């Protein structure tokens, strides 16, 4: 028999900062972050393998660290800023990565897509201008069974270009006094 | 180009949307975390189910003690096989029709990880804790792991069956005596035992379900199913619940590849749990459960013999197969085709005579035999013949491309009756191969190879010119559980010229929400963005057999095109009313109705749609909709020419795929972006099968690849860069000429990879290595060949 009787199943409340919002979740100490997020209604984070192999569950910790949320307890995530795919962009305001995956047919069944997007986001935070090989190496902890990865690499490169251009536009706009650097437009009248 | 011209309607510059790489309509929801998969279902009071699995591959069950499990807080019930016997729910019919399968073990277990008990609890953690505490008293028995042992019938594995033998069935096709006589007369004969290893489709979303009985006793069943309508019928047959009291919903499916065709024991247990506990039950399998209990694929041991003249003209083909079906015959093949479409094993070649036979056996391994990204055993058949042709080429010291060219069914021979009874619809094998040879620079590659060989380097070029048979199927031949393998479509056009499309199929990533809208948009001159596609809900979608075996486009796609034409005929009458002309004087030109000979007098479908609800005209039926059930007259036969270029490191056995070119001919292309995506994905799975994936069992019957640490899925680092192209030979019998493509790359590519490696090792005299071609296997083959050469 397993040592189930020694397992602490007492529920406790964890406070998680997810996509800029504070969540209070009742969890067991052994509750995995992936399930805590999903139980909170953030169903974009998927579970695919139970062995930390597939990466369908990747979320970002503190903006730029990809973490397999099936390999982390919810209680360990307290104090971190967590970003899930829901925090990347919604249907009306797609992030350049989401737009690029759409443009380049970088998804089919969609199950791996949230994890793939979050890992790609982390990579571009660290390396805004990767080679194809660097993209492949960074994404190697995320399995995809449908696409064969070729279009995912193209999508990440498209997003990298767009994000570099946006960063440059923002930097240039920031040189002019009175311009809102966050939108790159004068007076904040973004359209 | 008029879209009236049925099969010749290839995408031209004037099409609205056909042949265009329209971005997928379903993607925004997947990209933003708004997909709706089975595990996303949450219902009030929902319980979680966990399954107890056998650690033994073969054992008697002496007793099961539930007490410790029931004592876990939150546990509501534990059910066993004996409980199900009492409720007459212990056995499940297999789609194949030759056997039945235990839902939970009754009396004995027959494979490692077999389902033994199901636990229902308030949380998934409590359910799993309790599953660990179900105390099963096993009396281990010796397992029988190889079908070559099982066929001796020294131990009868299935004492529940009338026939006291491990032999399940014999199948054969073709001319046994004629083939043997032709082989005896052949100038050259090659023969090889070729194993298609047991592997698993392993979609990233595991299988799962949620079962709920509503207050009126109606079952609502959300499930990862590629065939929701067949599930509804099967559930009704198993449980006795009237079919109208069952609603099956397949929501978004995270990949299927054949894994989500059979009905699994866990589904029955979840329904039983929801029934007895009067509250919804969710069951989502673990990855280990997925790999160890649900439908595996292949496990065919094929003795392939080809006869030929010295000039390379083939004279006969004989294939004798021993099939390992595991503990239950749960293969998902049409009833009359126990070996699936294996009869396509004559491939793209003119065999004057052929004979294929197969014997299937029980072993103490997981049940299955699903069509893993192929149309029922087509991958096995294609691999056998494409490997066999290369072995013949090696024996004749003939270029493998020239050997194929010499034997291809010629373009002018279609429709072609193969030696094993299929009527191939259309094809251009030589044209497609020539395109591939030119595009990859074949002659230059052979020159490079000769130079490298002279330097002792191992470079290989592998060709596979496969033919598939897909689109099951014509009702006179094809059924599952007796249900004919038609498919269906329903189209409703709303007053404002938008509409809803429903089919009996179910996308698992294939992009039906986009391609189905494209087909209807093209036929009706409407905007595909405003045609909603809905599949998977048996309450709303018309009955169909589902999505597998590349059948969606050949069958449901045809139903859609023809249903759209019915809508158009209905609209023509309304258009005649609006244009004040006789219906027979109205023609459909450039996606609108016009009066014959008076192009200035025309109306659009959008205008007609509004009139259909507001001013249909006297005697015309109001509304604008149609439904249609399509019984295909024949299968479709996609084909392709694939070329792999590899470099083998003789020191380590490592194989590098330097280039891979796939030229596919799937007939008319609806959406080239989606076709290319399907090809990329299928090639990557073919690559995995060739080099990485296997579910092996050790001698004690242990499943040695029960998770993704052992069952290897290629990552972005291993996956090659794919080069693709196409030729277009429309199917003459399909309304838009389409043939289906999703499985071609998985069917055609394994042989190309293996042929390339064998071509690289040909100077060492190596003729065949069974997949997966791991570094260890390749290294051992090189070492053995070098040792043999040194001792000569």
UniProtKB/TrEMBL annotation, chain A:
Gene3D superfamilies: 3.10.20.30, [2Fe-2S]-binding domain. Keywords: 2Fe-2S, Iron, Iron-sulfur, Metal-binding, Oxidoreductase. Residues 12-88 form the 2Fe-2S ferredoxin-type domain. This is Carbon monoxide dehydrogenase. The keyword Iron applies. InterPro entries: 2Fe-2S-bd, 2Fe-2S-bd_dom_sf, 2Fe-2S_ferredoxin-like_sf, 2Fe-2S_ferredoxin-type, Beta-grasp_dom_sf, Diverse_Oxidoreductases. The keyword Oxidoreductase applies. Coiled coil: none annotated. PANTHER family: OXIDOREDUCTASE WITH IRON-SULFUR SUBUNIT. CDD domains: fer2. Pfam families: Fer2 (PF00111), Fer2_2 (PF01799). GO terms for molecular function: 2 iron, 2 sulfur cluster binding; metal ion binding; oxidoreductase activity.
